[in-house]
Write the structure tokens for this entry.
Amino acid sequence: MTPEASTVVLSTAAPVFKRVYVWELPVRVYHWLNALCVLVLTVTGILIAHPPALASATEASFSYWFGVNRFIHFAAAYVFFFNFAFRIYWGFVGNQFSDWRNFLPLRRAQFRQVWSVLQVDVLQAKNRPIEAIGHNALASFTYFAMFLVFLFQVVSGFAMYASMSKAWFPQLFAWAVPLFGGDFSLRQWHYLAMWFFIVFTIVHVYLVFYHDYVEGHGVMSSMVGGWKFVHPEMLKGNGRSWFPLSPRPPRNPAKPPPH
Ligand code: HEM
């Protein structure tokens, strides 16, 4: 290709994207703290479920690693819970992309978009852009399911912890032990839910990389800097674009995008 030809190709192919501030700082901090908690809880949880038989000739008090491991698990569970509670609060006060109503399957438009995402992403039967600036409808429902598992994990975890702690907080969940048929049965459900987290994370990380690469909206970096890049058509408010809610007034209208 001659230099002239390549110039022409580049200039005509360059899409004009607009920068949109999608994920506010509290959502980003929530997300990465949540991911860190899930990692710590999973590693320490697997060690609790399958403790390795470590033999050591050192003084017994130096080999208290299992106690330390459990302490880290319980401490991370508290951080996980309060971080999750904060995200629910932010669903009521944050911008329209973090609004709690995005996550509940309540509108026909959401189901239409779920079908559209299935056709494009899963069945690969259509090749058309998904008009969502925040989470697409299928992703939102998946996160909602994830939030329910988060809730179950908190309740089941603190319920088991209630018999070993005098603190008032775990006692709030003690009722779940008899409800699930005792400690052993509840522990099995808690363990199973951990595997749901692991499978979710693998699929989730694959999909965000996939969407980033295929759509070019900057999905990956959006959870770091907050910005996505979208075609101006998607900002026209044609009913499908600012999916699915009418925007709340901007919290900080004067803030210009960084250059
Ligand atoms: C290296 C690991 C991870 C990466 C790269 C990643 C990346 C992302 C990105 C880019 C988004 C925004 C997607 C969009 O714009 O629609 C997102 C959202 C989300 N991710 Fe992750 N994620 C990771 C780990 C996790 C883990 C471990 C969990 C929980 C088990 C998780 C749960 C979520 C949830 C619940 C949301 C929705 C956030 C909200 O609206 O509050 N992620 N993630």
